Amino acid sequence: MHPATSGAYRLSVSSLNEQIKGLLEESFSQVLVEGELSRITFHNSGHIYFTLKDSSSVVSCVMFRGNASKLKFRLEEGMKVIINAALTLYKPRGSYQLNCFSIEPSGEGALSVAFEQLKQKLSSLGYFNEDIKKELPRFPSRIALITSSTGAALQDMLRVANSRYKLVEIEIYNVLVQGVNAATDISNAIISADTKGYDIIVVSRGGGSVEDLWAFNEELVAQTIYRAKTPIVSAVGHEIDWVISDFVADVRAATPSVAMQICLPDTNELYQHLDAISSRLSERITQNMLRNKQELTYMFDSYSQHSLERKLTLKMQELQSLKENFNQSIFYKTQNCAKEIESTSSKFPFVIDSVVNSSRSKLANIKKMLESNNPKLKSKIGYAQISQDSKVVDLSSLDIGELFDIQNSEYSMSAKIVTKNKI
Description:
The chain has 10 helices and 14 strands. It is of the alpha/beta class. It has 4 domains: 11-107, CATH 2.40.50.140; 116-265, 3-Layer(aba) Sandwich (Rossmann fold), CATH 3.40.50.2300; 267-326; 385-416, no CATH class. Helix 4 (152-164) runs parallel beside helix 8 and helix 5 (182-193) packs parallel to helix 6. The chain is rod-shaped, with a radius of gyration of 70 Å.
């Protein structure tokens, strides 16, 4: 035996680690340690392994599935946290680690961090995009209310609905609105209502603490709202309360009562609106009737001006005018002719006498001329008729050497042209 070990209690490695484990776990059964997260591993088993460090030291940590499932936020590299843990020794390797019971962000609440983390994640996935929001129908006939049947929020919504619009049919889906199973209950109710053909689904609850409203911050509820085909209104808490479902839903209402004001038209306003429409409609009908009457009058006048009856009337008037003008012209001409005849009749005997006397004078002159030109009355000495081939010819037409006949009342002879001279 080595002198240095004489009198010492000999232990095996396992025994040493077992004693150290007992000592550490008894002495450090619950500690609060602050540090920065590093080398985070999310194991398939649900356990989380990571390192907690500060500026000069590190310590290994594990958070087993049971505790890890209770985390309200996701561990991220570099995040500063406060760990509630127990120190334990892992005997096979002789190394110690912190067994974490809970983790809180350093300087702010876990729920606040979880809220911002999920909000950022869903925003990056497009869950909040305005262009995918569905419009609410103006006059819904069926609405589903997903809320607690015992809560004051339901009574507020029913009261507002009854005062605003009694024509709507409302069906209530009673669900848990807080607690461990609330998110699953709400999600299942949305999925069921989405298949029933409602015009609007309202997801709501009254006010409360952040913890009370947390079911509406769960990713499961956000995904169900995002995938729904029916327009969804989120009405959770009071006006100052914002939850994830408000961002994902098609419409966010500040309170459950406001949700019903948004979803349902006000009957009194509808009556006033109908009165205004009726007045405008009557005025427009009156204006249209007046305008149509003017158009009909214009068309009738235009038709009258260009109709066959109008044209026939104008032609008849034109014919009547022509007839009157013709009769008047005939009348004037008849009067003028009558006057001329009368005037001529009065002058006729004198004219006849003048014409007769003039004709007698002309006849006497013609008679004298005939008598003076009658060959029987003229002196026949030295005059004879010249003919050729039994035709009377002019002396100038005969040429030298031609034969011709000469005769008077007593004698006839033949002659020949010997010479021809012009006198």
